[in-house]
Design brief:
single chain; 408 residues; abc type-2 transporter like fold; 2 domains; 4-stranded mixed sheet; 4 strands; 65% helix
Length: 408
């Protein structure tokens, strides 16, 4: 039995019904969110707990006083000076001299040291012959923060030692005071990450990804539940949603998700950086305005993907594993310029990519909304594009639902 055609309505009545459908969709979605424990975990617990857990893991940001064993096969004044300079760095600390590599390996296996500095027997002789001296450093790579700290410390020692040797050679030529070993002083300023810490570098971007992923997971969980009910023939529960215009239904749901996420957004983008002293230099009005299309685009993105869900558990299968993929595509751990063109183009369809780039610039480097207008406008474009996609899919679903309701 085919459904009866809808009676013709005047324009004012159509407008009224559209806004009424939007209001019903908004109220119904807010009721669903607040009465579903699983959705509340994704919409409340996850965005509140994940930033704190991640930031605690990465704090303290700078690794200091890593114990290092030294195997000094040279036993000269030059080698002792190298060890002294290494011990003077804030990142590395001399644990003890090892008689040979066997003893150093034993200390390593006993977890007394995380690195071994081996100085060859010809270290001083190579310097004396104006040849390049080689020093070997073995580092524990189980934690990249340790390797990064050790590499930074040894690079500083290498530059300082090279400068001293060069200056000594210049002095030996009788050009003391006329030539400097370092004619140019380099003053390095790390914009947006003054502490050079891992949390300060990655957390401002990860929090944006957490906002998107937690919202999409919650939306897909709701959709999976409704899809499971429809398979059992239950169309009555959401009949107001099916009878409303598809555009009103989609926009009402998206506004409900966006409204519900305002407190979490304020907590994640403002209070988490303040609590953990992460970079937070941008103007609050700028990043608040930037977060609006980010939330709407994420909501529309989730509503579009939600039509793939057939069961409640599908949200975990299809969405959770994408978090790592989206993290790489955001440019935080894989620079955009190093990505293949196809992958870079694919990354732009994910709202979090433009969201991460824009928020990091505004939050950490004090950029203005005008300076990030390309990301800001792109998020509005994604919101509109996914809105159209969600409306088309919702209209198809509504047509099938109305046919089922007419047969009931």
């Amino acid at each position: 039995m085919s459904p009866e055609p809808l009676p013709a309505m005047n324009p004012l009545k159509s407008i009224y019904n559209w806004w009424a459908g939007l209001a019903k969709a908004f109220r119904h979605e807010m009721h669903t969110i607040t009465h579903d424990a699983g959705v509340l975990v994704f919409f409340v617990v996850l965005p509140l707990a994940y930033p704190i857990i991640y930031t605690i893991i990465y704090n303290p940001e700078v690794v200091e006083n890593l114990p290092v064993a030294v195997v000094d096969n040279s036993r000269t004044a030059q080698s002792r000076e190298l060890v002294r300079m290494t011990d003077a760095t804030p990142e590395l600390e001399l644990y003890d001299y090892a008689t040979d590599m066997g003893e150093a390996r034993r200390w390593w296996s006993e977890q007394k040291v995380v690195g071994v500095l081996e100085i060859p027997a010809d270290y001083a002789a190579s310097i004396g012959r104006d040849e390049q001296a080689h020093v070997t450093f073995f580092c524990d790579m189980s934690l990249l923060l340790r390797y990064r700290a050790a590499l930074s410390a040894l690079t500083s020692v290498q530059l300082a030692t090279g400068s001293q040797i060069t200056q000594a050679r210049i002095d030996a030529l009788g050009a003391d005071g006329l030539i400097s070993a370092s004619p140019v002083e380099v003053d390095t300023n790390f914009l947006g990450d003054t502490q050079q810490g891992f949390a300060s570098f990655i957390m401002p971007g990860i929090v944006v990804l957490i906002l998107q992923q937690s919202m999409v997971l919650g939306i897909c969980l709701i959709a999976g539940t409704r899809s499971d009910r429809r398979r059992r023939g239950d169309y009555i529960t959401d009949r107001d949603d099916y009878r409303a215009p598809a555009s009103a239904s989609v926009l009402g749901k998206a506004l409900a998700y966006t409204f519900f996420y305002i407190p979490a957004t304020l907590f994640i983008l403002h209070y988490v950086p303040v609590i953990f002293r992460l970079p937070h230099q941008g103007d609050a009005i700028q990043w608040l305005l930037f977060s609006l299309p980010l939330l709407l685009a994420s909501a529309m993105f989730g509503l579009t993907l939600s039509h793939m869900m057939r069961e409640r558990e599908d949200a975990f299968i299809y969405i959770v594993f994408t978090s790592v993929v989206f993290l790489f595509m955001s440019g935080l751990t894989w620079p955009m310029f190093a990505m293949p063109d196809a992958l870079h183009a694919l990354s732009r369809v994910v709202p979090a990519t433009a969201g991460v780039e824009g928020f990091v610039h505004i939050n950490s480097n004090s950029a203005t909304l005008a300076e990030q207008s390309h990301n800001y406008l792109w998020l509005w474009f994604l919101a509109a594009a996914y809105f159209v996609g969600a409306v088309i899919l919702q209209a198809i679903l509504n047509r099938h639902a109305r046919r089922a309701l007419s047969r009931a």
